[in-house]
Write a structure and sequence with these properties.
The protein is an alpha+beta fold. It has 13 helices and 20 strands. This is 2-octaprenyl-6-methoxyphenyl hydroxylase. Pathway: Cofactor biosynthesis; ubiquinone biosynthesis.
């Protein structure tokens, strides 16, 4: 029987980051997962908060050469409806950042993580599936696909939407689907993107171009399932023309690269995100459409919280209620992001005039009220960051208006 402090089940991006974070924090870790698929041409946009976490793990210097900064994000209403929202543009410089984040090929992320895991002395890799997990008051007992039994003080379930860890803990889920599919591809273009990401809001969902290094970009194009089938059946030359037309030729001639993929859209949220000696991260806990670059960033915030609960307390036993504390801390963020993305996606699909009016009004307000726009930008980068900055700004304004406020400022 093999004994560890932390067992991480699942070898995708969330699982490997969780294993590395626990190990770098001083915990003895078992990473239980078959080898991850080597071919993944998707990309992930990591926001500033996530990039700083990657820096703390010592990964960013290896990832940075293959990443492209997102310095400007713009939203364009691409519908032909009666009430259309104005174009909204968000600049990272307005909130004191060089970039909101960076767009990174998943393949490169996985390569860097696998390389780091392979030389990490605190991680033992078990390249098999987990068959069963029994959670007790003092330990978790895991049975692996090769017959090995592993015990751990704490289990992190990062094993996706069909999580066996979640099922073993008796945690249910809420699931819902959408009449949409996401086409995911990379493409080259004649004109430079200028580190600008553009999201067109269309009647079938978002069409989101995100920069890659050089004159290349990644694309998530949300359409009806039958339209996704039609587009993927086109020769690459014709698909390239379809992408260029939808982008209004903003980047000139488009050349779609081989290997476009299609993913049906659905959402999932676990009834709870941890209990006792177990926590769920990534898509084992939450999953939603690829809107607003929230997916992996939300997963990394799960892991950051676990780092604070487990890795920052090295030398002390892992508390039997660590999973319950994780659940309480993560619930507000996960629920807010999940239902926020759901609401935005449904608003794009709705032909109900009051819904269109609310969306258009919201975009008008973001354009017309800079403090509100800055708050939204900061919240998108890191939850709580915008509210803290907004409160600090209000305090500063109140202080300045108090008698002697200007003199105090001059003295400083």
């Amino acid at each position: 029987m093999l004994d560890y402090e932390v067992a991480v089940v699942g070898g995708g991006l969330a699982g490997t980051v969780a294993a590395l974070a626990m190990a770098r924090g001083g915990r003895r870790v078992a990473l239980i997962a078959p080898e991850a698929p080597a071919h993944d041409e998707r990309t992930t946009a990591l926001m500033d908060h996530s990039i700083r976490f990657m820096e703390r793990l010592g990964l960013w210097d290896r990832i940075a050469p293959t990443a492209a900064p997102l310095s400007v994000m713009q939203i364009i209403d691409g519908t032909d409806r009666l009430l259309r929202a104005p174009t909204a543009q968000f600049r990272s410089a307005d909130v004191g950042l060089t970039a909101f984040g960076y767009n990174i090929p998943n393949r490169r992320l996985l390569e860097c993580l696998e390389s780091a895991i392979s030389v990490e002395p605190n991680v033992t890799r078990h390249p098999v599936t987990m068959e069963a997990c029994a959670l007790a008051q003092d330990k978790a007992h895991l049975t692996l696909g090769d017959g090995t039994t592993v015990t751990a003080d704490f289990v992190i379930g990062a094993d996706g939407r069909s999580s066996r860890v979640r099922e073993s803990a008796g945690i249910g889920t809420r699931r819902w689907s959408y009449p949409q599919s996401a086409i995911v591809l990379n493409f080259g273009h004649a004109l430079p993107h200028g580190n600008i990401s553009t999201e067109f809001h269309t009647p079938t969902g978002p069409f989101t171009q995100v920069p890659l290094p050089g004159n290349r970009s990644s694309l998530v194009w949300v359409v009806r399932p039958d339209e996704a089938e039609r587009l993927l059946a086109l020769p690459l030359e014709q698909l390239s023309l379809q992408v260029e037309n939808r982008m209004q030729s903003m980047l000139g001639k488009v050349t779609v690269e081989p290997g476009p993929q299609c993913w049906p859209l659905s959402s999932l949220m676990a009834d709870r995100f941890g209990k006792g000696r177990m926590a769920l991260v990534g898509e084992a806990a939450h999953a939603f459409p690829p809107i607003g670059a929230q997916g992996l960033n939300l997963s990394l915030r799960d892991i950051i919280t676990l780092t604070e609960l487990l890795a920052d307390t090295v030398g002390r036993p892992i508390a039997a209620d660590a999973g319950d504390r994780f659940n309480r801390r993560r619930r507000p963020d996960i629920m807010t992001r999940t239902f926020g993305v759901d609401l935005l996606n449904r608003s794009l699909l709705s032909d109900f005039l009051p819904i269109q009016m609310l969306r258009a009004t919201g975009m008008h307000l973001l354009n017309a009220v800079p403090p509100l726009r800055n708050l939204v930008m900061r919240e998108g980068v890191e939850p709580g960051r915008g509210l803290r900055a907004f409160v600090d700004q209000l305090r500063e304004e109140v202080r300045r208006k108090q008698p002697g406020g200007d003199q105090v400022e001059k003295h400083r």
